[in-house]
């Protein structure tokens, strides 16, 4: 705290002791009496008001981002087969859907969906069927990273955005499934997951889907997290740590590699999805370990705060999300009835935000 300077009285001669040069923002009186202080030029002889240094400016409080309005629109187009735990990527104004779990069967299908025209077509097949993988668009190609069928795999697979033959394009350092992949325009980050027996702390980066480097380590290992990249920060939401669902929000500085638990979700959450819509980070769906969730949250990184802004049409986990120019699309996933029977979905839902 800044302390006001004190002015010393001169002995009986009315001299003013100069203020110390290191003190700023204080205007000294012109003279100080050895008896009672009197304001100079004040014939009434009343005491001058005390001289008080201005208080320092308080630490600026982060300004919360205004809460946007969420619009949720189920599309009339449906997937030919209900599917969950798939990869969804944007390809221009179309959705590219890769792999996933169709009931109890892991699929290799690559679908191209046009939300505008309502058309759905199979345009390729993965070299290896997979679910619980991650994916990103790198170098103009769709890249599927890891996943597995009955065991986690090291494979990464690449396919043209328009479809065609898919091929194994590289390998992860270890087998990995149940992870999230968050990407910026040039780099994909592989977050969380496990080898089939061990949870993995390493956060990997790749620009081509073929070679990977470690850029940081999670503050807490998690399977089934949700993650997004915002500038130089990777945000990781929830997940399962050692079999228990967590509410932790992890902040990873991609410049320094430091990772911390920066905050908490309103409830424990795993198998959720996260994305960025018009600059706003949203986290949706998932499960708290007992029941599927429908809430869509807005996350404000300036204040590390989370607020509900709406809900999905049904409580849903393990869906895929991709962003197109007209909004984010939530594809497939799993839901459950009151008796706990899990149903795989064939739905596509568009999310739009207005500020």
Characterization of this structure:
There is one protein chain. The chain has 355 residues and is mostly beta strands. Helices cover 0% and strands 43% of the residues. The strands form nine sheets. A four-stranded antiparallel β-sheet has the order 1-30-27-26, with no helix packed on it. A four-stranded antiparallel β-sheet has the order 2-3-6-7, with no helix packed on it. Strands 8-9-10-11 form a four-stranded antiparallel β-sheet, with no helix packed on it. A hairpin with a 4-residue loop joins strand 24 (295-300) and strand 25 (305-311). The two termini are 39 Å apart. Residues 1-48 have low confidence and may be disordered.
Distance between the termini: 39 Å
Shape: globular
The proportion of residues in beta strands is 35-45%
Q: Which structural class fits the helix and strand makeup? A: mainly beta
Poorly predicted ranges (pLDDT <50, ≥5 residues)?
Answer: 1-48
Whole-angstrom Rg: 29 Å
User: What's the order of the H and E elements?
Assistant: EEEEEEEEEEEEEEEEEEEEEEEEEEEEEE
Helix tally equals 0
Summarize this entry quickly.
0% of the residues lie in helices and 43% in strands. It is mainly beta and 355 residues long.
């Amino acid at each position: 705290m800044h302390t006001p300077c004190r002015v010393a009285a001169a002995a009986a001669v009315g001299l003013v002791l100069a203020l110390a040069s290191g003190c700023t923002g204080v205007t000294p009186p012109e003279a100080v009496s050895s008896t009672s202080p009197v304001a100079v030029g004040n014939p009434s002889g009343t005491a001058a008001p005390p001289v008080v240094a201005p208080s320092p400016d308080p630490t600026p409080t982060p300004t919360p981002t205004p809460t946007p309005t969420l619009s949720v629109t189920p599309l009339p187009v449906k997937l030919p087969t209900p599917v969950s735990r798939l990869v969804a990527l944007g390809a221009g104004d179309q959705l590219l859907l890769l792999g996933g779990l169709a009931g109890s069967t892991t699929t290799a299908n690559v679908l191209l969906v046009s939300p505008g025209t309502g058309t759905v077509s199979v345009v390729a097949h993965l070299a290896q069927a997979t679910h619980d993988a991650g994916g990103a668009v790198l170098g103009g190609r769709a890249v599927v990273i890891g996943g597995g069928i009955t065991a986690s795999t090291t494979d990464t697979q690449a396919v043209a955005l328009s479809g065609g033959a898919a091929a194994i394009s590289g390998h992860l350092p270890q087998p990995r499934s149940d992870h999230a992949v968050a990407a910026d325009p040039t780099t994909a980050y592989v977050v969380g997951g496990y080898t089939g027996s061990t949870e993995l702390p390493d956060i990997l980066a790749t620009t081509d889907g073929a070679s990977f480097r470690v850029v940081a380590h999670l503050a807490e290992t998690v399977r089934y997290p949700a993650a997004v990249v915002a500038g130089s920060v990777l945000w990781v939401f929830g997940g399962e740590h050692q079999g228990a669902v967590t509410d932790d929000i992890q902040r990873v500085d991609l410049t320094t590699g430091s990772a911390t638990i920066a905050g908490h979700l309103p409830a424990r959450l795993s198998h959720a999805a996260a994305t960025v819509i018009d600059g706003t980070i949203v986290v949706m769906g998932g499960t708290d370990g007992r029941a599927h969730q429908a809430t869509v949250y807005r996350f404000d990184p300036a204040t590390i705060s989370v607020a509900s802004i709406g809900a999905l049409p049904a409580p849903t986990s393990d869906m895929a999300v991709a962003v197109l120019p007209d909004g984010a699309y939530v594809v497939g996933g799993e839901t459950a009835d009151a008796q706990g029977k899990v149903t795989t979905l064939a739905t596509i839902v568009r999310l739009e935000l207005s500020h």
